[in-house]
Amino acid sequence: MNNNDTVTRRRPTDGQLALARKVAAGEARSNAGVGHVPASVYIDPDHWAREKRTLFDRMPQVLCPSALLPDPNMSVAHDATGRPLLITRDGDGKAHVFMNVCRHRGTRLVEGCAVAKGKRMVCPYHAWSYATDGRLLALPRPDTFPGFDKDAHGLVELPSHESGGLIWFSPVEGADFSDAAEVGRDFDAIGFAGKHLYERRTHLVASNWKLIMDAFLESYHVLRLHAATIAPFFKDGITAGDQIGPHQRSLVGRAAEMEGIDLSDWDELRKVGTFAYQLFPATVIVVSPDYVNVMTIMPQGVNRTMAEDFMLIPQPPQSEKAESHWRRSWELLDGGVFASEDFRAAALGQEGLETGAVTQLTLGTLEGGIRRFHEICTEEMAKGDAALANG
Ligand code: FES
Ligand SMILES: [Fe+2]
């Protein structure tokens, strides 16, 4: 038992440790001064069309935590990317992302968006059935399809990747998931993959997707907007940040609290610092001391965005007391902090910007993460334009 303790001690990755050392040394994220973002990027339909073309129709994106499908032979439909997707975990435990469309006459295969368990997915129309690895298993009256090649009629599969407790997909072939794999190593260090999904909820927000991202890229608002909810638990601290490819990673902590702490011990480190990740284009992960929030942000239009919030906890609640503890945390965060505060602020931002009264947003030095995020958007859109121009 004692031996195990020492063997299973979790260690942060080199990148996480480097950020911890910066915070401990009192080194903040470097910021050049006051910055600006043009208002048009949030309200111009042409800008949104370009984002969709170059980012959302091209880049790998997180769909959900692995914990949504914890066991083999599970499946769930996913519609919010604008494509009817079907996420599965096959009998061997491998995750897949398919188009949720029957190969017979194109009917939607799985209705609703509930997680299902079962080896077969059966089309409601003529009952063609598929395995969770996408194979067409059987069709009624096969004699009426002479010469039919069943093996060539599996579900249409999209590229996908699972690591660090997240399932990603790519809307196009030839996807490069190497950055996803690298952030996966950070999440493995956190022990994310073994966590239990306590609850999930989808919100429809009347704002541009980037106004939601912005709210998770600065802590300037926390003591103000969240005065009635989480502000009392929040400690003002130093933010150190860096990037893994287009993804941003940050750590907030206080140098004084990090003194004498073994920063290379994950359990010690997470008590004194909060890691957050903005996985480009639009997923936010906040690693709180005892749970992890994953939020996938999925634009539906220039001023309409879906956000799906997942709360992951160390293990299923073992008692009434534990259940009511997590229920309260969930309601405080998902319903209170996110829905009533962050999403409300995003919608109010959209309302204000659409008046045209303000042509640019002003960013202070605590809002450097937002500036960097918008620079990354510009860089990635340019890459997308170039890739599309080259066919
Ligand atoms: S459309 Fe699915 S079985 Fe006919
Ligand atoms: Fe917030």
How do the helices and strands line up, and which of them pair or pack?
Layout lengths: L1 H7 L5 H11 L10 E4 L1 H4 L1 H12 L4 E5 L8 E5 L6 E5 L5 E5 L16 E2 L2 E3 L6 E3 L4 E3 L18 E2 L1 E4 L2 E4 L8 H13 L5 E10 L3 H7 L6 H4 L12 E7 L2 E7 L1 H4 L7 H7 E7 L3 E5 L4 E10 L2 E10 L6 H34 L6 E4 L4 H22 L2
Antiparallel strand pairs: 1-20, 2-12, 3-4, 3-6, 4-5, 5-10, 7-8, 8-9, 11-12, 13-19, 14-15, 15-16, 16-17, 17-18, 18-19
Helix pairs in contact: 4-11
This protein binds FE2/S2 (inorganic) cluster and fe (ii) ion (FE2).
The site of FE2/S2 (inorganic) cluster has 9 residues, from loops.
Would you write up a description of this structure?
The chain contains 11 helices and 20 strands. It is globular. The chain has helices at 2-8, 14-24, 40-43, 45-56, 178-190, 209-215, 222-225, 255-258, 266-272, 320-353, 368-389; strands at residues 35-38, 61-65, 74-78, 85-89, 95-99, 116-117, 120-122, 129-131, 136-138, 157-158, 160-163, 166-169, 196-205, 238-244, 247-253, 273-279, 283-287, 292-301, 304-313, 360-363. The longest helix has 34 residues, at 320-353. The strands form 5 sheets. Strands 13-19-18-17-16-15-14 form a 7-stranded antiparallel sheet, with helices on both faces. Strands 6-3-4-5-10 form a 5-stranded antiparallel sheet, with no helix packed on it. With 391 residues, the protein is of the alpha+beta class. Helix 4 crosses helix 11. A hairpin with a 2-residue loop joins strand 11 and strand 12. The protein folds into 2 domains: 2-60 and 191-389, Naphthalene 1,2-dioxygenase Alpha Subunit, Chain A, domain 1, CATH 3.90.380; 62-161, Rieske Iron-sulfur Protein (3-layer Sandwich). Fe (ii) ion binds at residues 215, 221-222, 226, 342.
